[in-house]
Amino acid sequence: MTDSALPDPLGDVEGTVVDGVRIQAPFQHADAPDPFGRLWTPHRMVYINGQDKPTDASASQCPFCSAPERSDTEALIVHRGENAYVLMNLYPYNTGHLLVCPYRHISDWTEATAAERAEIGRLTARSMEVVRAVSHPHGFNLGMNQGEVAGAGIAAHLHQHVVPRWRGDANFMPIIGKTKPVPQLLGQQRDLLAAAWLDAPIALEAD
Fold first, then answer.
1. Which of 11, 134, 145, 170 is the most buried (most CB within 10 A)?
2. 156 to each of 60, 76, 89, 146, how far by Cα in Å?
3. Active-site residue flag, 159
4. How far apart are CA 75 and CA 139, in angstroms?
């Protein structure tokens, strides 16, 4: 059957049988409510648009270099060490997502001194202890993305990710909805983790 043989307009064809198939009314009419919910996250636009992301590799534009110059509350810093410090990820993958950064503006793990590597390792372990004491996650993702091609958002300044994970946290929202619900504000997370930094249990060190 050609298109010219079909009734016109298409809105009047309900109930018509074409090649043995009865045409049903559409599931959703143009004036019907949208069946899909929306979780609007306009704050994510600053990340998508690259707001405050350095346009070059210099320390003068680096947020990880400028953060220690501000107050802990303003910069979301949880702990300051001698060679490195810990702060909240401004665009977290999960609740309690921390970053461990050296103070020095270096981009590669091979550029870190032995003292920086040791302290980044210690602060990573301590971050896990503190997040466990506060939020009781079931596991962690740890990692460094070296270079933009490897996924580093700010490739010019080395940083270690500490991402707590819970069973079922990788549900349909990030996979289908491209949205990651984070139920607690960053400032509240920072306050809880900073308060627990000195009080959380410390794992026994191996001999």
1. 134
2. 11, 20, 16, 9
3. yes
4. 26
Residue 160, class by beta-carbon neighbours within 10 Å (0-12 exposed, 13-18 middle, 19+ buried)? Answer: buried
What's the CATH fold of domain 42-196? HIT family, subunit A (3.30.428)
Instruction: Please say if the pLDDT value at position 104 is more than 90.
Output: yes
Task: Name the token pair of 42.
Answer: 């306009």
Q: Is the pTM of this model over 0.70?
A: no
Residues of the chain with pLDDT > 90, as a percent, come to 46
**CA pair distance 63, 73, nearest whole angstrom:** 15
Say which of 79, 97, 159, 161 is annotated catalytic: 159
**How far apart (Å, rounded) are the C-alpha atoms in residues 15 and 47?**
50
Does residue 96 have a pLDDT over 80? Answer: yes
